[in-house]
């Protein structure tokens, strides 16, 4: 029979571990209870490495990373990553210190290849980033929270892109690539043979600023039920509702061709509407690697729906803030008040924005627009006339 001393000796190690565990749990619980609601930026450490970088245009790149938070925190931390692609190269393949500045649009910066939120709810979080592969220039991963940039890393392909200003079409995915080719075939059925390339070239500048990289909205799902000020602009609402109800509220290279085939508003303008949308998406896919409907292409489509006319002037949205093509530009500070059927023009950013007005007062415009809340998305929205960046509106005399 074991003596008390022997029992104690056998139990002692387990008792010690139990006390240690209780102490650790107590300390951990104390840290959690006393932890601040939000972690400080300086407490967040991030590290990413590139584990796959094929130098071609029909694959994907892959990055692996770890987010570590030094101290305990209560509220989840929302971070967002952005993958930028720029043209220039040092000529040496591998890590680089030259950042890719997305404000240098049409010079060094080419496109944002990926952007996504990452929510941290634990002190250690692993993450993976994948994006379209590229065959020139360099790629930067930039991670930020609501306050500042937390982390940047750059990978250089070792090869400069041949033309910084002309962005070329590359395969987006097997589905996107297939749909792009189908789109071109259908365009050839309505555009005279030999003219398709020149048409796409003409449409290549018909773009506006991209939606915010961080915090994009979801596509609109509810149809528009308002009555426009002028019944002549009802077709603009009908086109918008068709896209909301039949195309998931968004037009991209992957769904534009198939979705537009079903457009039948019962007017003689349907074919022109389809052509404007598909030409815009195809041009963006070929020249800019942003394979979704732009604000300019959408406004051209709804203008065609309401008038049966082709708004043929080319150029980005901001360039339209002036008299052109039979339109009179009304400056918001001293021009005529807005009305249904006018086109509102923003001149802020690199390419600006344009939207089609369906209702208006002296102080508020209600518009249908594309590519504002999220990539290629269509929506109805109201704006105060004093909205920053809104320069005025185009109207027919």
From TrEMBL:
The cross-references to Pfam families, in alphabetical order and at most eight, read: CHAP
Domain Peptidase C51 as annotated: residue spans: 270-395
* PROSITE patterns with a match to the protein in the record: CHAP
- The protein depicted here goes by the name Peptidase C51 domain-containing protein
């Amino acid at each position: 029979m074991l003596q008390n001393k022997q029992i104690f000796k056998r139990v002692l190690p387990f008792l010690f571990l139990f006390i240690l565990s209780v102490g650790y749990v107590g300390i951990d619980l104390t840290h959690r209870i006393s932890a601040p609601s939000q972690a400080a930026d300086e407490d967040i450490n991030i590290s990413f490495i590139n584990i796959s970088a094929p130098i071609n245009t029909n694959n994907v790149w892959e990055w692996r990373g770890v987010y570590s938070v030094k101290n305990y925190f209560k509220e989840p931390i929302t971070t967002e990553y952005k993958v930028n692609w720029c043209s220039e190269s040092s000529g040496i393949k591998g890590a680089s210190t030259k950042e890719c500045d997305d404000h240098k649009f049409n010079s060094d910066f080419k496109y944002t290849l990926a952007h996504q939120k990452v929510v941290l709810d634990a002190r250690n979080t692993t993450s993976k980033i994948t994006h379209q592969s590229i065959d020139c220039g360099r790629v930067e991963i930039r991670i930020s929270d609501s306050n500042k940039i937390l982390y940047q890393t750059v990978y250089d392909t070792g090869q400069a892109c041949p033309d910084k200003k002309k962005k070329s079409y590359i395969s987006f995915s097997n589905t996107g690539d297939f749909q792009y080719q189908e789109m071109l075939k259908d365009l050839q059925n309505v555009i005279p043979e030999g003219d398709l390339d020149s048409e796409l070239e003409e449409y290549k500048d018909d773009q506006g600023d991209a939606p915010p990289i961080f915090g994009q909205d979801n596509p609109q799902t509810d149809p528009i039920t308002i009555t426009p000020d002028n019944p002549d602009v009802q077709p603009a609402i009908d086109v918008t509702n068709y896209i909301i109800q039949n195309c998931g509220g968004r037009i991209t290279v992957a769904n534009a061709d198939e979705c537009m085939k079903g457009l039948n508003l019962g007017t003689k303008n349907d074919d022109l509407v389809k052509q404007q949308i598909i030409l815009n998406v195809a041009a963006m896919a070929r020249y800019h690697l942003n394979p979704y409907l732009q604000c300019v292409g959408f406004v051209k489509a709804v203008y065609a729906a309401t008038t049966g006319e082709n708004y043929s002037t080319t150029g980005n949205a901001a360039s339209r803030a002036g008299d052109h093509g039979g339109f009179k530009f009304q400056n918001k500070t001293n021009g005529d008040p807005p009305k249904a059927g006018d086109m509102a023009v923003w001149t802020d950013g690199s390419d600006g924005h344009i939207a089609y007005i369906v209702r208006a007062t002296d102080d508020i415009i209600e518009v249908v627009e594309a590519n504002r809340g999220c990539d290629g998305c269509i929506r109805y929205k109201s704006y105060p006339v004093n909205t920053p960046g809104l320069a005025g509106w185009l109207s027919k005399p």
